[in-house]
Amino acid sequence: MIEKLFVAGVDVFRINMSHTSHALLAELHRHIRNVESKLNRPIGILADLQGPKIRIGTFKDKEVQIKAGDKFAFDTDATPGDSKRVHLPHPEIFASVKVGDFLLLNDGRLRVEIAGVSPDRIETVIIFGGTLSNRKGVNLPNTLLPIAALTEKDRADLEAAASIGVDWIALSFVQRPEDVSEARELIAGRAGVMAKIEKPSALLCLDDILKVSDGIMVARGDLGVELPLETVPARQKQLTRAARRAGKPVVVATQMLESMIVEPVPTRAEVSDVATAVYEGADAIMLSAESAAGAWPEKAVATMDKIALSAEGDSFYRGIMNAQRNDPQPTTADAISTAARSISETLDVAAIVSYTESGSTAMRVARERPNVPIITLTPIPATARRLALAWGQHCVLTPNANDLEHMIETACQFASSEGFAEEGQRIIITVGVPLGSPGSTNMLRIAQVGKKKTPAV
What predicted TM-score, i.e. pTM, was given to this entire model? Predict the structure, then answer.
């Protein structure tokens, strides 16, 4: 099934560490790498950490009914609760909340407003009632909690994932840039760091979080619980555009084709939602239960792939990308990437071929959203796998070129053999000179496939 999903359109496989043991992680990693080897195509693997889970205690009768307008308390008493109170085993919450804050229970289905706070008790008034059962989750949309984004389980999972060679690690419950910096220090360059934006507090310091992240995920599930639902589309746009400005990949996730968990076709609204993420400039769109536990995993992936291809092939897409284009940063890599995109629009070129070791130049080319394919050549498997998440990348593993002429010849050969250019068509090549120096992209070349002489730019 992993092979079928990849052929259907998957570029990166997400492994949810909330439901995955270290043994199963290693097994899944092995299966994916076997498919990668068989098909000779780099495949990305993302380990998604669980993050801290804030939950209430238990009830005498397993569940209670709470009604709007009634009073309900959360306290430090571990005794099973009733319709008037329940244990909240998180002392840091009692020290952080204030009167007027809200608590959301059971994925936001129940809502209470805080009317009084003491060191061992929180008095609330029920706004939206319903059934409340054992160990349901608690969200605090108005409160910045003094809780680290990494639990002991997360630290163990992070080390297990990084040590076997996953390509991305997604960090849950990010509230501040320090949360990402802590994870980055533990990862120590072994994987890319993706900050999941699911807390309103993260939106307040988004630019700082982006600076220390390698990418972000628009985690619309928890974000939609903690924010008013009607504001989530605007926040999605804000996050997508901020990531594109920074030149870092952004993933849009949660409930994209939710009905395909059980149905073989999505709703028209879901198709529109997926297309909207593509039109907005997302690097990746993510399936969750649709492919992990649904009845139609291969069909869900193929459907999402077709929606993305259709949206990017539409004339409106190019206009939107051009309208949202950001000014290049004053770096050589940005200048070269911007020039490559500009030349591709002026000349009839088949592709942009980018040589990279670190992957940074390929990311800058992707930021420009050129109207031709990006072929990224790298000698480093980890770079090719990590770039699988970025927009428009077709990564190919190749040894370092011996000299400039060999590099040009190799670029033309791969542009042809990978099906992007025919003999006589021109391609744009970006590379760093001297060859093999990471982060040194400083040259742009126009070459003609099947021709030996090439004009330099």
Answer: 0.91
